[in-house]
Amino acid sequence: MGEEISNKQVILSNYVETSVKESDMSLRTSKIQLKIPSGCDGAVFVKNLYLSIDPYILGRMKKRVPYLSSYTLDSPISGYGVSKVLDSSHPNFKTGELVWGFTDWEEYSLIKDPNILFKVHDKDLPLSYYTGILGMPGMTAYVGFFEFCSPKKGETVYVSAASGAVGQLIGQFAKTAGCYVVGSAGSKEKVGLLKNKLGFDEAFNYKEEQDYDAALKRYFPDGIDIYFDNVGGKMLEAVLNNMRLHGRVALCGMISQYNSLEQSEGVHNLFNVIIKRVRMEGFFTIDHYHLYPKFLEMVVPLINEEKITYVEDIAEGIESAPGALVGLFSGVNVGKQVVVVARE
Ligand SMILES: NC(=O)c1ccc[n+]([C@@H]2O[C@H](COP(=O)([O-])OP(=O)(O)OC[C@H]3O[C@@H](n4cnc5c(N)ncnc54)[C@H](OP(=O)(O)O)[C@@H]3O)[C@@H](O)[C@H]2O)c1
């Protein structure tokens, strides 16, 4: 038996019906062995450093969402994070290595099946970036934009939830591809960030627009070639009216619908997809991790040469995770929402 230490955890107290509240989660302190117990071959024991707060977590907190497996009640929430290996019985991971991938919302985790765990290769870059630009959101932006939207120089690009973990990268990737890019976000501060720090050509506050269709016509008088959809609902409907011939729509997420997926708003103008020969396709990043090395080859030089920047919203302490998650759904986060559990 290894030494036992205390382990703060964020657990799911009850299944969420519609929108998530902090009281759906609670903090608990339990005990955990500092070493991998016998019989756990292939496991990795880690100290968690950073947690990635992501919108899809809400789906796993609900009881019946067909495309995701629900969390177990009274067990820690799980998700992406950055961790340090303290003990390993897995041939690919060694004690002392830094990793990112699936872990639990707790100080220490025994990861029994580390099939989504990657090594941190570039230790000169901020470790928290492996929850964002160098982790799942970065891969999401890369796969969605370059693989699904096939951008060409001079094309027009629109992205919703543009200041968030994924959206801010779409804008910057679009600029590196020579496109004209407009983003929408939910506050004046975020609109300023998009235009003044992240290099978007234009940006608007969707909460101040009565008529999305008219707003899009203002920014795209000749139409949209590429729409990177993070929000779904009425915005997606308005975009379809404004797509150009042979446009592409990457369906990445539908955060405006996550509180009530069972009664999500309909999109009533799909005929546009036919008459404009639009290619509209959904994707899950998890199906594309084989492209991670190719993605790093592209993105690391862009970061090092300061051709791309990344805005993070850092909350301190594991206790802040429930509030940080709730904040995603009202736009409290400015940039990628990260929780620091411990600094290395
Ligand atoms: N397909 C995949 O594999 C995959 C992977 C990662 C993420 N995603 C999806 O990508 C989208 C963005 O994720 P992210 O991690 O980058 O999150 P994020 O943008 O960092 O955070 C969520 C943002 O969504 C906006 N939002 C919240 N409620 C909204 C509403 N009702 N209407 C419009 N905007 C709303 C808020 O910004 P505002 O202040 O601008 O409203 C909030 O800050 C999500 O839909 C997520 O589920 C998909």
Automatic annotation (TrEMBL):
The UniProt record lists the keyword Zinc-finger: no
Q: Could you tell me which residue ranges the Alcohol dehydrogenase-like C-terminal domain spans?
A: 165-299
- Cite the entry's keywords alphabetically: Oxidoreductase
Q: Which residues form a coiled coil?
A: none
User: Domain Oxidoreductase N-terminal, which positions?
Assistant: 8-114
| InterPro entries noted in UniProt | ADH-like_C (IPR013149), ADH_N_2 (IPR041694), MDR_fam (IPR045010)
GO MF annotation terms: 2-alkenal reductase [NAD(P)H] activity
Kindly give the PANTHER family that the UniProt entry links to this protein. PROSTAGLANDIN REDUCTASE, PROSTAGLANDIN REDUCTASE 1
> What's the protein here called?
Enoyl reductase (ER) domain-containing protein
Organism name = Salvia splendens
